[in-house]
TrEMBL record:
Leader sequence residues: 1-19
Pfam families assigned: GH115_C, Glyco_hydro_115
Protein name: Gylcosyl hydrolase 115 C-terminal domain-containing protein
Keywords, comma-separated and alphabetical: Hydrolase, Signal
Organism: Podospora pseudoanserina
Domain Gylcosyl hydrolase 115 C-terminal span(s) in chain numbering: 830-1015
Domain of life (superkingdom): Eukaryota
InterPro entries to which the protein is assigned, alphabetical: GH115, GH115_C, GH115_sf, Hex-like_dom2
Amino acid sequence: MRLLIWAWAAASLSFGCVALLEERIVSFEVDADAAAASAQLDIASAPILVSEDDPIGVHIAANSLAKDLEQITGITRSVANATFASISSETNRGPFIIAGSVNSTLIRDLSSQGVINVSDIRGKWETFKTTTVRLSGSRPALVIAGSDKRGVIFGIHTLAEQSGQSPYHWFADVPAQKHSQIFALNKTTVHGEPTVRYRGLFINDEEPALNTWWARQHNATRYPLDTEFYARVFDLLLRLKANYLWPAMWKSWTPPPGNIFFIDDPGNQQLADDYGIVISTAHHEPMQMATNEWNETERGPWDWSKNKANVTKFFEEGIARAGKNESYFTIGMRGLGDEAANTQNAIEMLKDVFKVQRGIIKKFHGSETAVNQVWALYKEVASYYDAGLDPDGDITLLFPDDNQGNVYRLPTGNETERPGGTGVYFHFEYVGLPRSYKWHNTNNLGKVYKELLHSHLRGANRIWIMNVGDIKPMELPLNLAMDLAWDASSISFDSIPQYLVQYAAREFGPEHAEEIGDILMEHSRLVGMRRYEHIDPATFSTTAYHEAERVLSRWDYLASRVNNVTALLPAETKPAFFQLVGQPVLSGATFVSVAIKTAFNLRYARERRNSANLLASSVLEHFETSFDLIEEWDNMLDGKWADMMSQAVYDAVEEPKMWANPSRDILSNLSYVQIRQNMQFSLGNLGLYAEGSSSPAEQGRWAESVDASMPTTNFAPLLPQLDPFAALQERIVEVFHRGDHRVPLNWTLDPWEEDWLHITPTGGTLNSTHPDDKIVLSIPDWSKVPVEFNKTVLIGVRSTPARYPYFDQIRLPVLNFVPPNTFEGYPESSGGYISIEAPHFSPNFSTPNTSDIHFLAIPNLGTRSNTGSLALRPFLSARGDVPKAKEVKAVYPIYLFSDSPPSVKHNVTATVYINAGLDTDPRLKMELSLTLDDQPARFQRVLGDYVKNPHAGDIPPEWLPHVADQVWTKKVNLGEVGEGRHEVVWRVNSPEVYLEKIVVDVRGVVQDSYLGPGETRWVDATEVMRGERRGRGKGWRGKGKWGWRSRMGVGGLWM
């Protein structure tokens, strides 16, 4: 197994290119110790020796290695067949690179001569060993011995990767990292067996990008995906230590029928076998036949009950054509268009289908069990298995996700003991309900890791097949998945950031790897909030908790970091960086900017702001920028990847057939105000927006006989309460021009009595180029605020010129209540709520982590929390003892204040945010309990009972409206609660329930928002002085690196 020692991982960056998680077998520096240096083996110019009788895939890999090393060192070398005898008589004294499988003549001879010992890898699956040896005449050599053909192939490609060649050398144009010396380390390493036996990718949904790109490369309207294309795919797979492929198969009408791997180029299937790739077919393509091969005009309907003979003949053709090539036959039968089969009794039909298919396999291979077979439990098929349809045990059960990255089902009971095993089919992109997503990589790496980790721990390790669409731009999640499939123990939740640093070092060199790795991590967090295609202008709140501003700020900052790194990279690295980092981040930032600015444009228009028009212009500019990025992509490298990013993504909020991708980008829903027109004079041309309020929008429609003004009363600029424990220790008022833009407005604040209140600025001028100002209200020193102060501070605002003397009042509620000095936890804040990130439970009152089962903070998983999630661990122990697991508790101390007699209680509710996932075990459906103080546990289901959907299979009722949210939110009533200290107690029944955040709503003040309010402050008991208890504890994140105001430009606009 690969060694993953993160202590040396960062140090390894100095070596240049690294194989991400493998124990190192080469270095590039002369050892400082003279004796060690004399033993170093420089293979920079070493010829490559292989055995003539090894499979052709070994020879292909050896020749690839020669080309790789030439790109790295500039030195050409030979690849030759050799025997032990020929090496011994070779005039070249070495060193050599020797590669072969344990069954090859060359490795057998080296073993029999005592040069190497391969007993520790013989008989293993896809395992390889490296060692340095001395042959006769002291000829030095690096030997790569594989337990089988793919074992040695993986060893060869590992040497290439560690020497400086990325697996994405062609698919992302990563340049080889140059080295004049490559030293084989003087040690023996063993790599393998892999965690997952068959692991690979599914090329799917090939229109409009992949097919159009490939045709353009050949100056054609349509061009088959032939051996030229698949040779590149097979090379990539093997360099990622993958071995399994579902080929491209999408139906087409321009021209029909679409991609057919087996006949588009008759050499495809044999080439796969030569390389060592196992070919299978998609979930609805049985018996090694592409769906597009079925011609109803010639063969009749795809209907088992009406056309069994022709369908059976079709099956036979596929098995016969596959011959003895290494294959994994998909069995079963669905409808042609990824739909349920047209039958009255699907289970009885499938029983007969299985019988016939098994008979065909026996006819051509001598036994029903002679070859690998898989049954994909996709969509409606899963319900047949749940209803009792259980094929023979040698058939692999392939459990899917829900097309949205949530694994649908995993093995239970004796399902792990099936000889055929179980596996997982997982989507990195999808076309279908509720919305398609295939434009860019929108996979949160922590979430991907969670789902695949569960699959491994639950024993679904026979097949992992990843739907990657066009392959590009899914390089990163595919890399992660294949590394996990090779060695699931090599990555943890904690190590994901360091994994990305190593990935960046491999692709772009060590100099900027830390920064690029952090960019990729932040990108993963941001796309994990919601996939691009699921975002519309209404997604993020423009009024609650500065949510939209904060999201936009993070994207903007990320884009600036990408631009900074781009400027520092050498020219030869920039195309790869643009493909793997730059274009994904810049396109994402632009897309989110368009969505959020469109939302602000509508809000500003409703508020009658002049700046609505400036925002509309900014949206149009970003819309054009998005296509500039596409054209930059298309022109890169003389058009090598032109059209690969041709999938449209900008869409209207509501159109017919919303599940499908847009066929052309459109920009909609922009609003404009008449900027030469004055506001109704009773309101005046100066507008005030107090954060979180709807007052200026309400003033967009006005009845003077009803609505008081100068100052306004019904729709006054009322700010959220400011107290010592609020998540943000500032309050914002936006001052804006809403009249004739040709007439500048002067505004000023009246003096205020409270000298501890800091307000800036106190006046300004608004005009056509600067239509908005921002006022910041804060209390820098809470010790100067009277204890138990509980009032609304009024600040007068005046403006000139005005037809009627303009006067309004900003209203700021201030509360300076504090809990007793002994309290440690989360006090009520912001006018009546508490927001808690799940990892911040109190260890003093919770089940200790020394217990057999306990709660553990899970870093790098979650989008509603900056600090991760909370889950039961150890995973298998918690699953194995559910009663004990349900007793484990995480406790969050809270303190409620009272602005009324202590006897008055409030009906308190809480909303919990749970990282999305499905009930993968029918016997252990996910449950939660959230209670207060010493209340008994009240467990409730996370998800409701599944219901049938004709296009998605059986799904929980929460799925269609909320799966795009990436979290499940559940509201819990905690009952009537009074002033004082209380404990919020969290319990679950399963380690697959990951809590991200709890929001306790004490007074019904929590506003609707997508992400929920940010974490409020934790106070420590060590802060004993009341005047100093200002929440410097772990819950406070301050403005820090994600401070939203970094996006605010001149006048408060995002230009």
